[in-house]
Amino acid sequence: MRILVVEDNPQVAETIMDYLELAGHSMDCAYHGQAALQLLAEQRFDVIIMDVMMPRLDGLSTVERLRADGIATPVLFLTARDALADKLAGFKAGGDDYLVKPFAMEELEVRLQALALRGPRGDIAAPLRFGELEVDPAAGRAKRAGVELKIGKIPFQILSLLARRAPALVSRQELLDTIWGDDEPDSDALRSHIYALRNALDKPFEHPMLETLHGQGYRLVTP
Questions:
Q1: What stretch of H or E contains 16?
Q2: pTM of the predicted model, to two decimals?
């Protein structure tokens, strides 16, 4: 299995990764939710181990965002929070299993194998639609008025976030945090990706959909 561990405690993350690597699995790690979203936008995993209490972006919010982006990878919440309300919140956010700390490594691996065999969830893969725009984050494709849009990777991630929130405003800082995490680029880099997105989304059409609110952020509008 290819497994992503999202855990803010380095010792816990290292212990899990060491055990699962020795069992023959391929591992990667993120120490908070924003870093996990960035990794998941670039790579595919068979299953995700997700802590709940983390800085910058907690586990529940992270899973809600990746489900909204059409990422259907199975998620196992791994946390010390053992109340029924916590477990229900985990499943409501889009989790597939819930294991309470402390736990046995053998049980963790068996649960992960069961999730990987089950495969990606089939209930969240529907494309995002707003007006004449259709965005399919899972397939990495977008159409406007039935016309396929040619968009680079980062402009597509920006479009997916805007489509998920449309017609609400998305702040510049949220774009930076969601797409780049800790590796925040300078303002010129973001502007260049917005420019590329505008060229792909609006230039071939009569009415623009990408609106900039100076000093606030960006949003999609219907023509």
A1: helix 10-22
A2: 0.63
